[in-house]
Specification:
Radius of gyration: 14 Å
Helix content: 40-55%
CATH class: Alpha Beta
Number of helices: 4
CATH architecture: 2-Layer Sandwich
Mean pLDDT: 78
Structural class: alpha+beta
Strand order of the largest sheet: 1-2-4-3
Largest sheet: 4 strands, mixed
Shape: globular
Order of helices and strands: HEEEHHEH
RNA sequence: CAGCAGGGAGGCUCUGCCGCUGCCCCGCAAGGGGGAGAGGAAAGUCCGGGCAACACAGAGCGCCGUCCUUCCUAACGGGAAGAUCUUCGAGAGGGGAUAGCCAGCGUAACAGAAAACAACCGCCACGAGGUUUCGGCCCCGGGGUAAGGGUGAAAAGGCGGGGUAAGAGCCCACCGCGGAUGUGGCGACACAUUCGGCCGUACGCCUGACGGGUUGCAAGACCAUGUAUACCGACGCUACAGGGCUGCUCGUCCGAUGUCGGGGGGUAGGUUGCUGACGAGCCGUGGAGGAGACUCCCGGCCUAGAUAAAUGGCAGAGACCCGAAAAGGAGCGAUCCGUUUCGGACACAGAACCCGGCUUAUACACCCUGCUGUGUU
């Protein structure tokens, strides 16, 4: 598996796991995102970071707009996640992240990419 | 050439880097390779079907839906070709309505005398009175009048002539309406002849014919996880508490606790349903029939299957289109054509069980037919 891939194992799913993330996770804001993350303990050597991407139906009513935004965010995460994932694996922890798009506008890809990179750096410095 | 009307068909292409989801092949595995991967509306969820679960003797009533005719279709509230009326447009054409209701009943705001057994004003003759310049005028009474006025969405068939005190289908011609007969058409209807002087229109209740069981893939099936126990049955136990018949006793009946089975309640998942290699399937400047929707035959094809939800992101190039400029070509001319440079624009929109429709959104550009206007000859 190469360092730029993003398979189903790295995408957050399951009602309980998501509920736990939003109840106990710590959050922050970097325009145009609100983010929530939760660290956990694990013994496994496998990749243990998972991401969830959300775009509000309230601000973006057309499905094709939401798809475009989610795809861009996913690309940005995919291209910049490798240092984070490696660090999480070495520390033998697990990490769940939620990225929530909060702008009514469709911002350019460059803005999205910068914001995602900043969030990842912030999360790494936190624990 | 410009502006329209109707119908049809389309709705970007290529390259590089990095990815996503099924499938097939190789490999013990890590992984590697191959090939596939959004729409004309995938949308709204408005109709009709398939499929699934539950319900269901049969019949009637009720409820809901549909409603000009003939066809098409698996079916439809859909489509095709027509009919009548109406409305918009200069026209090509577009929109809307249409079962019956003189079986019966109800409603018709505001305005208006009156909204269906119509006299407010007006008009008319007659009778009583007043006045008079003897022409009349004023006033009262009971009558006759739907020609005129005003109101209204709608005012008692229209219009002309005769007729009359004034009027009136009272009479007549034409038109309209209704009945009958004939002709044409499968039919809705149309046309002709003839008879009838003919007191409305809209909507609803109502009447008739036809159709409709309910819920939707979060349907449903299976696997795994696995716990309080309403309730029911069987077995076991009649040892103790309790309750009913009864206030007590006897008697008798019920009965918690046990085991098994059923049953219902709850938690978070997976597989299947699921994508079709066989279907109301798709494609074809292929035949045949039909005015058309469509049907039959022939040939070829197998065409997304996700699930916090794949089908992409970024960068670059190029078509097509629009605007401006340059030199050139065609034509008498309005104008057109290709070339180069610069700038701009590239829509609506994302499958969620599957089909057939309807409705709505849509930059740009193409083809066919038709209409109106204009230029040159």
């Amino acid at each position: 598996m190469t360092e730029f891939s993003l398979t189903k194992a790295e995408r957050l799913s399951g009602e309980q796991r998501i509920a736990r993330l939003f109840q106990r996770g710590k959050g922050g804001f970097v325009y145009p995102f609100r983010y929530v993350c939760l660290w956990g303990e694990t013994e496994s050597e496998a990749i243990n970071s998972a991401v969830l991407i959300s775009v509000s139906k309230r601000y973006h009513k057309r499905a094709n707009r939401r798809n475009l935004l989610k795809r861009r965010i996913r690309e940005a995460y995919r291209l910049h996640k490798h240092s984070l994932v490696e660090s999480v694996r070495i520390r033998k922890k697990s990490l769940d992240i939620a990225l929530i798009y909060t702008s009514k506008e469709i911002v350019p890809y460059k803005t999205t990419e910068d914001a995602v990179r900043k969030i990842l750096e912030k999360i790494l410095r936190e624990p």
